[in-house]
Design brief:
Chain lengths: 129, 129
DNA sequence: CTCCTAGTTGACGTTAACGTTAGCTTAGTT
DNA sequence: AACTAAGCTAACGTTAACGTCAACTAGGAG
C-alpha cells in the first residue's frame, strides 16, 4: 500500500480557503479530530479521512446549516447501529432530514423562478443593442 | 376599494411563529417599516405589503442567507432603475444570484442522494417484517 | 548562534441576530 | 378605582462562529 499523504493545518486551510483557527475551532468543539500529532512538537497532521470530513462540514455550512446540525448529520453518518431499533431511528432521522432538504430545494427553485421573472422584466425593457 | 386589513405586531408575529422583538429588530435595522403608527399610542400596524416583505425575509433566512444578503436582494427587488446602466447592473446582480442559487440547489440534490444511498444501506439490512 | 517560519495553547474580542428585563403608557375589564 | 393585557423604548445579556493577540517551541537557513 502506498503511504498515505498527510497535510499540515495550513495546507488543509489553504485547500478550502479557510483559516487555521477555523480548523482548530472545529476540533475544539469535537467536529474534527487530529490523532497522530507529533509527540514532540504537538503539530497536527491530517489525512484524507479528515479532509473529507472537513469538506462535509463546509458543504453543510454553505447550505445554511449550523455546525450543530451538521454535527448531528455526521455523527449519524458515522454511527454503527447495533440493533433494529437503532436502525429504525436512523432511518427516521434520515427521512426527516430528507423532507427538510426537499423543502429547501423547492423553496430555492421558487426563488429562482422569481428572480428569473424579475430579470426578464428588465431585459425586455432594454433598448435593442 | 375594500378597506385593507391591518395587523398588530403580535398578530403578525403569530402568523409566522416569530417574536414581536424579531419584528421590531427588523425595523431597527431597516428591513421592515411601519408607517402609520398610532400617533397617540405609538403602536405599530402592518398591511399586507409589510406582511409579504416579512415573508420574503423569513424565506431567505430559511434558505441560509444572512439578513444582510436578504436586504440586498430586497432592495434590488424594489428598486426602480432609471437608465440602461442601472438596468444592466440589476441584471448582472440577478445573474450572479441565480448562479449562486443554482449551485446551492445542485449541492442540496447531491446531499439528498447521499442520504438516500445511506438510508437504503440500512433498510436493506433490516429483518423482513 | 541568530533569525525566520510554522505551529501551539490560552484567553480575550467581535459580530449577527435576536432574548430578556425594567419602567412606562393606553385600552379595556371588573 | 383597581387591575390586566398589549404595546412601547432603552439597554443590557446571550450564543455561535470564529478573529486576534500574546507568549512559547521546534526546525531549518545562513
Amino acid at each position: 500500500m502506498a503511504e498515505e499523504k498527510v497535510f499540515t493545518i495550513s495546507e488543509l486551510a489553504a485547500m478550502f480557503d479557510i483559516s487555521s483557527r477555523t480548523i482548530r475551532y472545529y476540533e475544539e468543539i469535537g467536529m474534527l479530530t487530529s490523532e497522530n500529532r507529533d509527540s514532540l512538537t504537538k503539530q497536527r497532521s491530517y489525512t484524507n479521512r479528515e479532509r473529507r470530513r472537513l469538506k462535509m462540514i463546509l458543504r453543510g455550512k454553505k447550505l445554511g446549516f449550523s455546525l450543530q446540525e451538521i454535527r448531528e448529520m455526521i455523527e449519524l453518518y458515522e454511527s454503527n447501529p447495533e440493533g433494529e431499533a437503532e436502525k429504525s431511528m436512523i432511518i427516521a432521522f434520515a427521512d426527516s432530514k430528507l423532507r427538510e432538504i426537499e423543502e429547501q430545494i423547492m423553496q430555492l427553485q421558487m426563488l429562482r423562478e422569481d428572480i428569473l421573472t424579475y430579470k426578464e422584466k428588465y431585459e425586455n425593457s432594454r433598448v435593442k443593442s
